[in-house]
């Protein structure tokens, strides 16, 4: 599979623009001056070992945490200055695909997908909801699973349903948290293909948090690697891992699966 195409990316427009971002928890300095942006229509991979601050970055982007210093602009809005109502409206434009899929075990797949729609979009008819669920399930190739329970699905199918539930609100930005974690190589490859299909079909801009370098290489137009609270190197997959930096070489050698 080739690296995602560049032609749909609008480099004149950043949907996420972060400057001089610092975040500490007591004496633990997690982010130490992050500069970062995502262009419209672009997938950017955020790489780093566990505990390096990748999830803290995501929480800052959606306003669940406040930065100590720095600015975060998302879809033209200054996140750290927004009131709760404005933040909630912004979050509806951002889709989050959780590492564990976060499906409701007591609901079937149709109900899982319909729930965020009926909670957040008023005055929908039953036909509107049916059509939206069908479109989202079709996008992830699981139309035949609408009335099954999450417990009946494989790990890969749950990941797909989690992505479908995120897509149902037609987000402009997708945040993928370890999308291939815990999956076998064949299923991982299918999820990678789906991430690229979502980018092309919905023209989403995405952050892919991963330490799976195959996932990063196949789904992301650019990658950035976080080491010691900073982005050490940003560029294409090939540019980043051609770096002579020993810490980057070590990360590659430890993680990469041919």
Brief write-up:
37% of the residues lie in helices and 27% in strands. With 258 residues, the protein is α/β, with parallel strands linked by helices.
Task: Calculate Rg over CA atoms.
Answer: 18 Å
Q: What is the strand content?
A: 25-35%
Following the backbone from N to C, one meets helices and strands in this order, namely EEEHEEHEHHHEHEHEEHH
Shape: globular
CATH class of the domain at 10-93 and 171-255: Alpha Beta
Give an overview in words.
It is a single chain. The protein is α/β, with parallel strands linked by helices and 258 residues long. The chain is built from nine helices and ten strands. It has a domain at 10-93 and 171-255: 3-Layer(aba) Sandwich (Rossmann fold), CATH 3.40.50. The chain is globular and about 55 Å long. It has helices at 54-61, 84-91, 109-120, 126-139, 155-167, 185-202, 213-219, 237-241, 246-255; strands spanning 10-25, 28-40, 43-47, 69-74, 77-78, 94-97, 173-177, 205-210, 222-227, 230-235. 39% of the residues are buried. Helix 3 (109-120) packs parallel to helix 5 (155-167).
Core attributes:
Rossmann fold, alpha/beta, 10 strands, 258 residues
Helices and strands in order:
Elements: E1 10-25, E2 28-40, E3 43-47, H1 54-61, E4 69-74, E5 77-78, H2 84-91, E6 94-97, H3 109-120, H4 126-139, H5 155-167, E7 173-177, H6 185-202, E8 205-210, H7 213-219, E9 222-227, E10 230-235, H8 237-241, H9 246-255
Parallel strand pairs: 3-8, 3-9, 6-7, 7-8
Antiparallel strand pairs: 1-2, 1-4, 4-5, 9-10
Helix pairs in contact: 3-4, 3-5, 4-5
């Amino acid at each position: 599979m080739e690296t995602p195409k560049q032609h749909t990316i609008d480099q004149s427009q950043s949907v996420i623009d972060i400057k001089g971002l610092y975040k500490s928890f007591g004496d633990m300095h997690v982010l130490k001056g992050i500069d970062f942006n995502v262009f419209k229509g672009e997938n950017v991979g955020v790489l780093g070992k566990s505990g390096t601050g990748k999830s803290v970055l995501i929480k800052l982007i959606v306003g669940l945490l406040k930065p100590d210093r720095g600015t975060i602009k998302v879809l033209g809005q200054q996140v750290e200055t927004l009131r709760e109502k404005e933040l909630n409206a912004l979050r509806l434009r951002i889709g989050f695909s959780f590492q564990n899929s976060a499906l409701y075990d007591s609901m079937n797949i149709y109900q899982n997908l319909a729930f965020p729609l009926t909670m957040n979009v008023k005055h929908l008819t039953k036909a509107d909801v049916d059509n939206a669920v069908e479109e989202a399930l079709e996008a992830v190739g699981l139309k035949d699973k609408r009335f099954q329970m999450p417990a009946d699905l494989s790990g890969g199918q749950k990941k797909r349903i989690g992505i479908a539930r995120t897509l149902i609100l037609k987000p402009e930005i997708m945040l993928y948290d370890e999308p291939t974690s815990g999956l076998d190589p064949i299923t991982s490859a299918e999820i990678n293909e789906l991430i690229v299909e979502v980018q092309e079909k919905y023209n989403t801009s995405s952050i892919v948090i991963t330490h799976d370098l195959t996932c990063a290489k196949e789904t992301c137009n650019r990658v950035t690697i976080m080491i010691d609270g900073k982005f050490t190197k940003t560029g294409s997959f090939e540019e980043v891992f051609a770096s002579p930096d020993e810490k980057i070489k070590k990360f590659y050698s430890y993680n990469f699966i041919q």
